[in-house]
C-alpha cells in the first residue's frame, strides 16, 4: 500500500476503525510506503505503539517506511525504530495556553509514565503559584527554582485542582511559613518537595501528612517544648525517606537533631508519675469494671424488665397487626387441678370480658405438628400467661418450649405482655428458665395463694 507524498500527520489509519491487532498475521507480508508525509509522533500514537511492543518482529515491514517529521528529537526516525528502542516516553503532546497551561511554563501530556501531565514552571522567575492548571488528571507540578515567598495562592486554590495533582515540587524558593490551610491541601498528594526554602517553624498540622509524603530538607530552628512532637513524627532511620526532613535545633552554636534532644534539654517541665500508684489505679479500675460487668450480667433480666417498663410508660408501643388471640396460656396440661381451675374459673372470666383465649389442650388442632402450631399461635397472640407449677406430675416438655417462644416475643415486641402466675408457690431457684427469675426478684408474679381471691382481676389489670 502506497500513501507517499500526501499531507498525513497522524496515524489515523490505526484508529479504532482502522487496522487492529487481530489483523497482524494477515499484514505480516505487507509493506506500507508513506514517505513524503509530515508524520507527528506524539501522544496520540502511544496507545497503538504500546499495544504493538510484543509484535514488533511481525510488523517491522509495515512501519519501516513511515518516518516521523516531528517532534524534533524523533525526526527521521521510523515508527518501528521508536517502538524497538523503547522510546515511548518521547511520545508526548505539548499543551498550550488554550489548554490552560500557565504562562512561562512548559506543559505536556505523557501517557507512557503513569499517564501523567507535567506542568514545568521551574526556573521561570515566578513570584507566585499559578491558579490556572490544565484540566488533566495525574498532574505533576514543578515550581522549583523560582522566587515564591508564600503559599497564599495555594490556600485559595480550588480543592478540585489538588484532587488532580499527584506531585508538587516547590523546592529552592523563598517560602518561610507553612500554613495550616496549605498543608490541608497537600494531604492527598503523593509527594510534596519543599527542600531549599527558608522555613523556620513546623506547625503541628504537619502531622496531617505522612513523613514520607513531604520533604522539607534540613530545617534549622530554635526548638521549644512545643516542638517535641517532631521526635515521633519524623521518619525512622531505616525508612527510605529518612532524609526527607531533618529538624535541627540551634543550641549554643551547635546544631543537634531534635530526635537526640530530650525535654530536659529544652527546659521543659517533666511530670513526675508515680508508676506504682498508676499501676494500682489501673488494676483497681480493671477489677471495678469486671465486678460491674458481673453485676450487670447477673441482673440482666431484672434490668431489662425495668427498662422495658419505663419505656412503655413514656411511649406507648404500636400494636402488632397480625394479632388474632388476646391471650395464650401455657400450663402443665397433665395436672388435673390446673386444667379444672383454668376451664371453670380463669378462662370463663377472661372470655366474659370479650378476650379471645387460646388453651392448647382445648383449642389445638388434632393431627397438626404441635411445635409449628405453637409457634404460629404465639406469634399471633398479644399476651402470654405462664402458669408455673410443680413438674413432678408431668414432664412439661412442651411448656419449656412455650416459655422460650413467649419470652422471645416479649423481648422483641414491647406491645406484648408476659404474666407469671405462681400456682405451686415455687421460688425462682426451682424454675428451669432463668429469665423468670427477674419477675420473682421484682415481685411481678401473681401468687396463687391470693387470699383476696382476686387473681382474675389482677390478670386483667396486667393485660395490654
Automatic annotation (TrEMBL):
Query: Which of UniProt's keywords are assigned here?
Result: Membrane, Signal, Transmembrane, Transmembrane helix
UniProt xrefs under PROSITE patterns: LRR, TIR
| Domain of life per record | Eukaryota
Instruction: State the coiled-coil residue ranges.
Output: none
**Entry-linked InterPro entries:** Leu-rich_rpt, LRR_dom_sf, TIR_dom, Toll_tir_struct_dom_sf
Which residue numbers delimit the TIR domain? 323-463
The processes (GO biological process) annotated in the record are:
signal transduction
Q: Name one GO cellular component term.
A: plasma membrane
* GO terms for MF: signaling receptor activity
Localization of this protein: Membrane
A Pfam family recorded for this sequence? TIR
Q: Which residues cross the membrane?
A: 277-297
The UniProt entry lists membrane topology as: Single-pass membrane protein
Family label: Belongs to the Toll-like receptor family.
- Provide the protein name: TIR domain-containing protein
Can you name the source organism?
Answer: Mytilus galloprovincialis
Amino acid at each position: 500500500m502506497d500513501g507517499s507524498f500526501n499531507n498525513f500527520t497522524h496515524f489515523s489509519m490505526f484508529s479504532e476503525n482502522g487496522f487492529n491487532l487481530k489483523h497482524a498475521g494477515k499484514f505480516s507480508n505487507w509493506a506500507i510506503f508513506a514517505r513524503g508525509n509530515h508524520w507527528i509522533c506524539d501522544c496520540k500514537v502511544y496507545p497503538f505503539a504500546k499495544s504493538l511492543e510484543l509484535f514488533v518482529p511481525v510488523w517491522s515491514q509495515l512501519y519501516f517506511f513511515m518516518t516521523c517529521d516531528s517532534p524534533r528529537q524523533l525526526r527521521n526516525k521510523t515508527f518501528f525504530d521508536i517502538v524497538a528502542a523503547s522510546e515511548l516516553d518521547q511520545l508526548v503532546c505539548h499543551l498550550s495556553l488554550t489548554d490552560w497551561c500557565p504562562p512561562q511554563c512548559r506543559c505536556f501530556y505523557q501517557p507512557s509514565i503513569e499517564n501523567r501531565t507535567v506542568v514545568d514552571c521551574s526556573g521561570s522567575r515566578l513570584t507566585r503559584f499559578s491558579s490556572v492548571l490544565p484540566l488533566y488528571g495525574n498532574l505533576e507540578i514543578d515550581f522549583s527554582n523560582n522566587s515564591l515567598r508564600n503559599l497564599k495562592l495555594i490556600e485559595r486554590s480550588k480543592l478540585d485542582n489538588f484532587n488532580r495533582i499527584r506531585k508538587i515540587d516547590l523546592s529552592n524558593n523563598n517560602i518561610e511559613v507553612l500554613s495550616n490551610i496549605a498543608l490541608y491541601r497537600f494531604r492527598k498528594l503523593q509527594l510534596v518537595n519543599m527542600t531549599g526554602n527558608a522555613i523556620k517553624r513546623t506547625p503541628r498540622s504537619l502531622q496531617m501528612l505522612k513523613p514520607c509524603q513531604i520533604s522539607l530538607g534540613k530545617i534549622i530552628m530554635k526548638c521549644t517544648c512545643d516542638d517535641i512532637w517532631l521526635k515521633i513524627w519524623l521518619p525512622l532511620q531505616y525508612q527510605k525517606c529518612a532524609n526527607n526532613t531533618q529538624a535541627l535545633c540551634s543550641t549554643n552554636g551547635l546544631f543537634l537533631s531534635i530526635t537526640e534532644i530530650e525535654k530536659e534539654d529544652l527546659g521543659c517541665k517533666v511530670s513526675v508519675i508515680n508508676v506504682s500508684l498508676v499501676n494500682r489505679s489501673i488494676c483497681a479500675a480493671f477489677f471495678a469494671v469486671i465486678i460491674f460487668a458481673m453485676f450487670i450480667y447477673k441482673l440482666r433480666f431484672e434490668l431489662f424488665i425495668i427498662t422495658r417498663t419505663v419505656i412503655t410508660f413514656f411511649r406507648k408501643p404500636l400494636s402488632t397487626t397480625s394479632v388474632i388471640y388476646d391471650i395464650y396460656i401455657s400450663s402443665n396440661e397433665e395436672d388435673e387441678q390446673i386444667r379444672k381451675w383454668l376451664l371453670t374459673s380463669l378462662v370463663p372470666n377472661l372470655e366474659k370480658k370479650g378476650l379471645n383465649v387460646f388453651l392448647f389442650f382445648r383449642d389445638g388442632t388434632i393431627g397438626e405438628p404441635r411445635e409449628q402450631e405453637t409457634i404460629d399461635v404465639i406469634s399471633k397472640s398479644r399476651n402470654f400467661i405462664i402458669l408455673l407449677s410443680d413438674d413432678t406430675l408431668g414432664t412439661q416438655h412442651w411448656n419449656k418450649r412455650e416459655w422460650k417462644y413467649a419470652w422471645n416475643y416479649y423481648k422483641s415486641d414491647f406491645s406484648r405482655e408476659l404474666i407469671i402466675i405462681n400456682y405451686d408457690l415455687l421460688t425462682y431457684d426451682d424454675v428451669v428458665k432463668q429469665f423468670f427469675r427477674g419477675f420473682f426478684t421484682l415481685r411481678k408474679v401473681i401468687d396463687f395463694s391470693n387470699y383476696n381471691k382476686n387473681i382474675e382481676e389482677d390478670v386483667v389489670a396486667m393485660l395490654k
